[in-house]
Design brief:
Strand content: 15-25%
Bound molecules: nicotinamide-adenine-dinucleotide
Largest sheet: 7 strands, mixed
Number of helices: 15
CATH topology of one domain: Rossmann fold
């Protein structure tokens, strides 16, 4: 990605919640507690490669808050993973879970690695060795990872299997919930794979309900065609949206009449990216942003919507499927131009909500149907959108500030009631 990092991502994340904290008058020490993570675990571990050599890797697990429940958050495999990024992502998880009203805290993990450069066998050894290095820092009642950029259900299965083996035979059946986003075969939940993209679609539907727009009259551009971007694009196109431009790490493609998303998914599965997709025009990265569209959905990495890009964009709504895609400078540009933003902690909460369902199903060893999962997901997300809209009307603020305010209301109440030990 060619957009330079403008500032520390963690600093951006802190500024976002501090703005809402100012608005609703959150006092110390809650502000300071929420500014820094509770625990920062950094592990360095060796892995044997297929050619017999060893390579050292650095992995992170940042546990931001467990005031509302066990630490919860994904594990990212990407070359840019560093402490600053994981700290920001962990903090966003705390507010996301609080906003969704689920009894989970916030955490995030990652390994600095480009997974595309390693064989499946090597990746399995990285996952297992990382899990072993984390050891008792994770656990089904303590800290529960999930997939994120560069990781998938197969990796979560390996993580669970490694943890179960570390725990010993007597506990093996009780620890399935140490990780969510597993495959269905190993205790995953129906509907988890598509849950984040589905939640993004609900955000779009909610906005349509507010504005009177029709889904089948909207043009949409999407950055990222991985788990989140591809499921969102498929579901949105099934509802009649015209997905006109899609970009990923291999390139950007577009079709004025709308891309055939089903065919594109097959193409990406076979070719590893959107580049070269037939029946489409090749475009530049900057054209992804500058092509007029009703809705822009960033579903790749953070800091993609920069000030200069925002100035050149012609859209009415941004739904932050990715975490932290909008820089503070871009946010100001969008505010000046009246572009609405559905913030990440609301827009992409579908993943963690269904992860919560997976954890509940693992605890009870009873599994729910996909219809049941989707119904419960819709109820939780709709309530969160309603709460944000109501708080926004009270405070006269942006949707992001209102989302943080709702989350802070819930966090502050618990801190106030519990106090600080000892
Ligand atoms: P993924 O690894 O499945 O897909 C990432 C996508 O980003 C891919 O299409 C990749 O090509 C694209 N990408 C990577 N580098 C790029 C570049 N340089 N330029 C353009 N595109 C690039 O990851 P994902 O799980 O879909 O996650 C995407 C975003 O959604 C991340 O911000 C993640 O934190 C967030 N998110 C994911 C989940 C989840 O359940 N997976 C939940 C909440 C939020």
């Amino acid at each position: 990605m060619d957009a330079p990092r403008q500032r520390s991502l963690h600093q951006t994340a802190v500024e976002q919640f501090q703005r809402a904290a100012d608005l609703i008058g959150v006092v110390e020490p809650t502000r300071s507690i929420l500014t820094e993570p509770k625990n920062e675990v950094i592990v360095n571990f060796p892995v044997e490669l297929d050619d017999g050599t060893w390579e050292m890797f650095t992995g992170y697990r940042i546990q931001h808050s467990n005031i509302l429940g066990p630490f919860k958050g994904g594990i990212r495999f990407h070359p840019d993973v560093d402490l600053d990024e994981v700290k920001a992502l962990a903090q966003w998880m705390t507010f996301k879970c609080a906003l969704a009203g689920i009894p989970l805290g916030g955490a995030k993990g990652g390994v600095t690695i480009d997974p595309g450069n390693y064989s499946t066998a090597e990746l399995q050894r990285v996952v297992r060795r990382f899990t072993h290095a984390l050891g008792s820092n994770i656990g089904p009642e303590h800290d529960i990872p999930a997939p994120d950029v560069g990781t998938n259900s197969q990796m979560m299965d390996w993580l669970m299997d490694t943890y179960a083996n570390i725990c010993g035979p007597a506990n093996r059946q009780m620890v399935k919930g140490v990780v969510t986003g597993k495959s269905l075969a190993t205790g995953g939940s129906a509907g988890r794979e598509a849950a984040t993209g589905r939640g993004v679609l609900y955000a779009l539907r909610y906005w349509c309900g507010e504005t009177g727009e029709r889904l089948d009259s909207l043009s949409v551009s999407v950055q990222g065609f991985g788990n989140v971007g591809s499921h969102f694009a498929r579901l949105a196109s099934e509802e009649g949206c015209r997905i006109q431009v899609v970009g990923d790490h291999t390139g950007t493609i577009g079709a004025e009449k709308g891309l055939d998303i089903e065919a594109l998914s097959v193409w990406v599965a076979e070719h590893g990216g959107v580049a070269g997709f037939p029946d489409s025009d090749e475009m530049t990265t900057e054209e992804l942003f500058s092509t007029p569209a009703d809705v822009f959905v960033p579903a790749a990495l953070e800091n993609q919507l920069t000030g200069p890009r925002a100035t050149g964009m012609d859209c009415r709504l941004i739904i932050e499927a990715a975490n932290g895609p909008t820089t503070p400078e871009a946010e100001d540009v969008f505010a000046d131009r009246g572009v609405e933003i559905v913030p990440d902690i609301l827009a992409n909460a579908g993943g963690v909500v269904v992860s919560y369902f997976e954890w509940l199903q693992n605890k009870s060893a009873r599994y729910w149907s996909e219809e049941d999962v989707d119904e419960r997901l819709r109820t939780i997300l709709w309530d969160a959108h309603d709460a944000v809209v109501a708080r926004r009307a009270e405070l006269g603020c942006t949707r992001r500030e209102a989302a943080y305010a709702v989350a802070l209301d819930r966090l502050v109440e618990v801190y106030d009631r519990r106090g600080i030990f000892p």
